[in-house]
Each structure stands twice: as C-alpha cells, then as structure tokens.
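Notes for week 9. Today we move from apo structures to complexes. The key idea is that a small molecule is not decoration. When we ask for a structure prediction with flavin mononucleotide present, the ligand SMILES becomes part of the input, just like the chain. The input block below holds both the sequence and the ligand string. Read it once before you look at the output, and try to guess where the molecule might sit.
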Amino acid sequence: MDLSTGYMGLALRNPLVASASPLSRTVDGVRELAEAGVGAVVLYSLFEEQVRREAELNARLADAGTESFAESLSYFPDTADEDPGPRRYLSLLERAVAAVDIPVIASLNGVTPDGWVSYATAMQDAGAAAIELNVYYVPGDARISGRDVEQRHVDVLTRVKDAVTVPVAVKLGPHFSSTGEMALRLDAAGADALVLFNRFVQPDIDPEALAVVRSVGLSAPGEARLPRTWIALLHGRVRAALAATTGVETAADVAKYLLAGADVVMTASALLRHGPGHAAVLLDGMSDWMARKGFADVDAVRGLLAVPQDTDEAAHERAEYVSAMRAANRGVYETW
Ligand SMILES: Cc1cc2nc3c(=O)[nH]c(=O)nc-3n(C[C@H](O)[C@H](O)[C@H](O)COP(=O)(O)O)c2cc1C
C-alpha cells in the first residue's frame, strides 16, 4: 500500500509522525523510531528556561559577581538541571539528522518572543527539516486577556518565520475562546502547520500525602475527540497543514484522524506504552484498513468525514450537540 504523503512541503513515506517525547532524547531513540517506520520524528522540546539559563550562565561568566544572578536562577524549575542544554540539543539534532533518512523536526518550547529566534536559526543550521513551536502558555494570571494570549502566539510565530526558511509548525493548546479564529490568525501569519493540540499538565492532588503531584500522564483514545473535532472543522479552511496529536492507540485512531482531515497523525503515548516498534503495528493496520475499504492512497482518505465546506459551521456544531443530547435523553450514550 502506498502511504506516501506530504507535510509542510516535506515528502514523507507515510503520515505517521513520532511526536515530541523522551523517545527522541538520543540518536539511538530517533534511529529506532525511523526503523519502526514512522514518516518523520519531532525531537523532544528545547525549553525556553534552558535557553535563558544558558544565557544567564554565559552572562555570569562575562560579568562575575552580579548579585541578582542567584535569585533569578531560583525561578527556574529544578528539572532544568537534568535537561541537556541548548548546545547538547543542537548536537543531538545534528547527529540525528545524519543518522536517519526521514525528516527530523526540531521543537522549541517557550512563551516569550525573545530568545526563540536565535535558537530557531541554530536548529535550522543544525539540519532541522522544520521547526515546531510548542507554545506552552497557560495564562495563570487571571488578568491576562484572551487577545494578549493570542497575540503571543502570533508574535512568536512571526519572529521565527522572519528568521528561518525551513517550514514552521505551531503546536497549540485547545483553550481559546475561538480556537478557529486563532487557527485562522496563525494561518494568516504564515504557519506552515498547526499541531492540534498540546496537552496541558494538569497537576493531581494526593489526599494522603497532602501533596500536589506534577507528572505527565499518557493519553487515552477518548482524548482524541477534541482535536479531531477541530481538525474536521478546519480542514479545507486553512492553508496550513493540520497535524493531529493526542490519543492515537490503534490503527483505527490514525484512520479516524485522516478521515477528519489531518495531513499527518502524531503519536507519543502509544509509543511510550508499547515501545517504538508499535509504529509498525499502526502502519500495518492502516494499510490493511485502506485495502479493506478500497482506498488507493492517503489522499483518498483525507478529509472524507470533515465538516463539508459549504456548511454553516456554528449551526453544524449546535445541531451535533442537540442531536447528541436528544439521544442521551433517550438513554443512548457512549462511555469512552
Ligand atoms: C512523557 C511525555 C513527554 C512529552 N514531551 C514533549 C515535549 O518535549 N514537547 C512537546 O511539544 N510535546 C511533548 N509531549 C506531548 C506529545 O508530543 C503529544 O503531543 C501528547 O502527548 C499527545 O499525544 P499522545 O496522545 O500521542 O501522547 C510529551 C508527552 C509525553 C507523554
């Protein structure tokens, strides 16, 4: 089965992409993902805190004795010590690019426009096929306006787009008053792809230890419904490619995202849960499903069940809600 496709102008052997995760923290990890068959790999993110920390360290070397130094470093999370710094990230990127024959996409995780540009450029110079901007910004200060949050996303994208020539994807969260308009604004600002959606860390509370538990949980397939709904709504309405991320566990989950209109489908949790070799299981399952359904290639699948172009989208969403609620009132509902 021919699964070849394109993503942001990159030629991919198939639309399954390993999204940013600890699996890509070493060259061997990236090689394993490539050998399992994925079409591209997104490296884990270089964090803005690491970039700033390295900059501060450099400044300290240049200006020993600055009193504010120790205090400002105390704002950084402890984990910054465990993470490799930007120079090691760039070295990993360079070696990973040389080690595999699929596109390697670098990921920058930050929130302020400053500091992104130089590292985005360095990532491009290190051979990144594209750059994914993981704009992780939870406006914890309740006085920050929605428009400010949106503008941060656009500003970061605009600065990086001005600085590099490789394609730039924006990975964003789902929590906007109007996610569709945010997507249109990023599209207009030149995003080559929108990666929907990042999952925000939502701390748990351990009532026995009386402690806050901060950890990243692996996703469940039911969580794919939110990004899939938005992909189905945005398909054909933005020039940017659409990358699906969250909740891919089986080949059926990949098929559902493509039917909704995704250009590529990303996976992290399933590969962490079952090992990188699970990519081959997903791809084999996709090929079997396409053969069974009579699809000759990925283009024939993509967007088949997207919200049709000539639809009043708001009315469509309202109708879906009313119909689902009517069914629920008759006792027809699903458990995820
Ligand atoms: C352990 C772990 C680490 C992750 N690290 C990153 C990261 O560095 N950068 C990023 O953009 N996303 C990161 N993610 C998010 C994933 O790339 C992905 O978008 C998310 O987990 C949803 O996809 P999934 O359901 O296939 O896991 C991480 C996810 C997990 C589970």
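Residues 19-22, 44-45, 107, 109, 134, 171, 198-199, 216, 218-219, 245-248, 267-270, 272 surround flavin mononucleotide (CB under 6 Å).
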